[in-house]
Amino acid sequence: MLDFSGYPLWINAAVFLAAAAAVWWAGTRLTHYADAISTITGLGQALIGMLLLGAVTSLPEIAVSVTAGLSGNAGLAVSNILGGVALQMVVIAIGDALLRGQAITFQVAKPAILLQAIFSCLLLCMIVAAVLVGDVAVAGVGLWSTGILIGGVLMLWLFTRYKGNQSWEAVPAPKPLKGDKKNQPESLSTALLLTAGAAAIILAAGVILTRTADAIATETGISGNFIGATLVAAATSLPEISTVVAAVRLKRYMMAFSEIFSTNIFDLMLIFLIDLAYGGPAVINEQGSFAAFGAVLGIAVTLIYVAGLIERRNKAFLRLGVDSWAVLATYFGGIGVLYVLS
To answer: In sequence order, which residues have a C-beta less than 8 Å from that of residue 259 and are 6 or more positions away?
Structure first.
């Protein structure tokens, strides 16, 4: 396992920035490859955003959370996941800012995205319930952790079954916009090969990001839980930021939302892997009010965007939709509460 704790702060900061640049580049290219795969296969933006972007951009979270679980740091492992879920909604606000005067939620008129958002909220509710009532370990893994995994798999399956159902659709829907196809692969095999390469870069650079962030946290003396929910969560969210920015520039708004909501579902399912790697009791039993509030914060910011997707207000204030401003205010207010709880 990479150990940067012996290096001075400035070296760790430089390595962190270099890894961040690599993740940003790979994430940007990944969106172009995903768009090409969506066009070639005809699977659609939402499904590709879920199955491809959501899974690949979860690789850094897998690395840091499983590693933290193996090292016995249950707080960092779970707080990284929950902090990342809330932070993903801020990533959508970043994409909103790129539209310059139009609300990003107005650009999405498909009910499938709402389904993904509700599914992620249901998994977060399960985590809150697990923390409040406690967990029971069977064969070294908590029953709640197993339930979260099974629930996540079932929700992803239901989403793939729902893909073609358009019985509910916003009217009038915005006119489809053509994105920039420049420098996109034309064959499926090339697109898949390039996607695998980008995924490898994201995984390797993501591990370096999390290890240097952990070293920076140790050197600055800030609480491990709080660092996990903020700095480490921000580091592991860089792939999502780059893919969302690229998707918005390509005018693939459904793909941007689907990538974020599906990433949250994949990340929450990692609680099972953390529990499996953790050598102590059920990992949920090692959590407290910090984790419960982190999950509630994730529910709140997700539902704000659900309200925006339903209302579809196209007016923006200072380059952001009203829902994005509400998400930012809720998120940073919640971070303040998490700091106090830590």
So the answer is: 49, 50, 53, 54, 57, 240, 243, 244, 247
3-state secondary structure labels for all residues of 288-342: CHHHHHHHHHHHHHHHHHHHHHHHCCCCEECCEEHHHHHHHHHHHHHHHHHHHHC
Q: For the segment 252-310, what is each residue's pLDDT rounded down to a tens digit?
A: 888 788 878 888 898 899 899 888 888 778 889 888 888 899 999 999 999 999 998 88
Closest by CA position to 230, among listed 217, 244, 243? 217
Angle between helices 253-277 and 238-249 (to 10 degrees): 160
Give the count of beta carbons closer than 10 Å to the beta carbon of residue 13. Answer: 15
Distance CA 173, CA 157 (A): 27
Strand 320-321 and strand 316-317: the pairing is antiparallel
> Coil, helix or strand for 142?
strand
112-138 tens-digit pLDDT: 788 889 999 999 999 999 999 988 888
- Bridge partner residues of 142 (DSSP): 137
